[in-house]
Amino acid sequence: MRRVSAIGVAAVLAAVFWNAAPASAQQRPLITEDPLTVGNGRLLFEVGLDYEQDVKYPLSGLSGDLFSVPNLGISIGISSIAELQIDGGVYQQLSITEQVRAPLTPLLDIGGTKTSSIRDLLVGTKVQLLGERPGRPALGARFATRLPMASLESGLGRETTDFTAAFLIGPLGAETRGFGRFGARYTRGSVRVDGAFLLGLSPRDPDWGITGGLTWVVDAFRVP
User: Fold this and answer.
1) Strands, E, within 58-156: which ranges?
2) What is the pLDDT along the chain (224 residues), one digit of tens a residue?
3) pTM of the full predicted structure?
4) C-alpha closest to that of 165 among 139, 137, 145
5) pLDDT per residue as tens digits for the range 23-49
6) Cα distance between residue 65 and residue 149, in whole Å
7) 22 burial via Cβ count (<10 Å: 0-12, 13-18, 19+)
8) Please, which residues bridge with residue 210 across strands?
9) CB contact at 8 A, 31 and 73
10) d(Cα 50, Cα 2) in Å, to the nearest integer?
11) Distance CA 224, CA 220 (A)
C-alpha cells in the first residue's frame, strides 16, 4: 500500500489584504505568507482559480462577482534564505451588479454587464531573517512590486506601479482588511492539491468566494 507523505488540513481567519490590492505570492489555499523560503535551488509552481461574490472597486465604482483563471505563481529558491516570487493571472472577469460614480468612471470602456482583463503582475523577493526554533518563531522580510497589467478602461486595473515591504512572523498577524478562509490541502510527494471557502469579514470585502489550486515543488538546480 502506497503511503501518502502528508495531509494538511487547516481552518483559519487571516486578514491579508493591503489597501484594495489582491493577495499574491502567498501559499495556497490560505494565502498567509510563510516567513520560510522555498529552499535552495527549488522551484514552486502554483496554479488556481478563484470566484468571489460582491467584489468592490472603489476607484472605478464597480461592484460584482469576480472569476479569475488561471492564477499563476512561481517561487525560485535563489539561496537557502532567499527566493524570487512572480505572480499573475491570464484572465479575470467581473459580472457587474452595481456601478456608481467614481474618480475613474469617465475613463471606463465597458459594454454590457461584464468586464474582463488580464491580472496585474507581481514580482517580489522574500528573505528569511531567522529560522524557526523551539520557543522562537521564524522571521522574514518581503519586498514586492506590482506591475500594472490590468487595463484602466476595464475598471479592474489602476495602471499604477506599487511597491510594498512587509516583515513576516509565523503565524502572520492581522491587517486592516480581512478574509476568512476555511481550506484543506492534500500533499503527495511534490504535488499539493488545495481548496478553500472564502468569507468576507468587513463591508469592504467580497461577501464570499471559493478557490482551488495545484502546487508543484521540484528540485531544479544547484546554487553555488
Assistant:
1) 62-77, 82-89, 92-99, 114-117, 121-130, 139-147
2) 333 333 333 333 233 333 333 333 345 555 556 778 888 999 999 898 899 999 999 889 999 999 999 999 999 999 999 999 999 999 999 999 999 999 999 999 998 899 999 999 999 999 998 887 888 788 899 999 999 999 999 999 988 888 888 776 656 333 455 667 777 878 888 888 888 887 776 666 777 888 888 888 888 887 76
3) 0.68
4) 145
5) 333 455 555 567 788 889 999 998 988
6) 20
7) buried
8) 51, 197
9) no
10) 32
11) 13
User: Residue 149 is which amino acid?
Assistant: M
The grid coordinates of residue 183 equal: 481550506
Distances (CA, A) of 169 to 13, 52, 172, 177, 204: 16, 28, 5, 18, 26
Q: Which three cell numbers stand for residue 11?
A: 481552518
Take residue 193 and report the three cell numbers written for it.
492539491
